[in-house]
Amino acid sequence: MYNEKARLSLGDSVSKTGSIKSEILEQALAALVRFKSLTQAMKVGELRVVATEATRRAKNGGDFLLRAANAGVPIDLISGEEEARASALGVICDMPWATGYVADQGGGSLELAQIVAGEPRQPVSMPFGTIPLTSAGNCNPKPLARDIEEQLDEEGTFKIAKGLPLHLVGGAWRTLAQLHMQVTDYPLTILSNYAMPANAADILANVVADKAAMEQSGVVSAARLPFIPAALATMEALVRIFRPSEVIVSVYGLREGLLFDRLNAEAKAEDPLIAAARHEGARLSRFAYHGDGIANWIAPLFQDDPAQLRRLRDAVCLLADSAWNSHPEYRAEHAAELALEGNWPGVTAS
User: Fold this and answer.
1) Is CATH 3.40.50.10860 what the domain over 80-258 is classified as, yes or no?
2) Kind of pairing, strands 110-116 and 194-196?
3) What does the alpha-carbon distance between residue 143 and residue 63 come to, in Å, rounded to a whole number?
4) What is 268-337 written as a DSSP string?
5) What's the CA dihedral at 216, 219, 225, 227 to 10 degrees?
6) What is the predicted pLDDT for the residue at 268?
7) pLDDT grade for 243, boundaries at 50, 70 and 90
8) CATH architecture of 10-77
């Protein structure tokens, strides 16, 4: 998936003034027009633009939507519940076997949902984004956990089952996962479904308390740095509430969930790893889909393998010819790089 961003701080503006500042609004419109031109150059057949919490809360959110439409970029303003559901679908898209709870923290809000039998349930949205928490100095996990629980009680329908995985979606939490990788000397930097123990906040607390250490880490941007303590406090608060078996950081979320929701049942049922390996194998190999033949040929040697090993072997076979045009001296190295450093769905980083 092509990924490019323009950091505009709409949420920060709304948090401070209640509105999107005029200069930020103009920057946002310019970015939207530019992104639309990119999609046209890439021959994208259908374009959908969505707005979330900052636009929902902004006094001039309606004006922003109108001006965007007049600029040729109509925007769907989705509800907090729709946002929570889409984020959970993003996790399901990447991990069809996922269970437990999904938390998506952005600048303006915190969305929660439960995954039951491959479907999102109980989607809720709460005003516990990193920006308002930081502005209010609400970075103590104990009172924050109480605030979140009170909000869930007000919802009246959100049920909590303890001991299930907790999936985290959002840039600040991905940054915390990268810091955790550094602290624990994890050998890879791929975040895809990186699992941390439920007490990971204890390990991260010392790092987050040291601003200089975060600045020198190479993974915390200057723009995100002020909001990392709030993200850590929220993670710890959610651990207190859900008592999860583990904390899993997802690189998929709202965008992928919105796309996944539009697929037909057959496409949704595909194994994401096999689908991705098949696509890349066809794109990079000399002989499209010859990997199926290799997989079938060697299958009798591994009849007792569990299903997880079998799907990994099938994916490798689909990619077997992907480095054919590399220099023979480096072919194996390039193939290994593709496997270890590729952005593969349907696998875990730990």
Assistant:
1) no
2) unpaired
3) 37
4) HTS-HHHHHHHHHHHHHSSSTTTHHHHHHHHGGGGTT--HHHHHHHHHHHHTTTTTTTS-TTTHHHHHHH
5) -150
6) 95
7) very high
8) 2-Layer Sandwich (3.30)
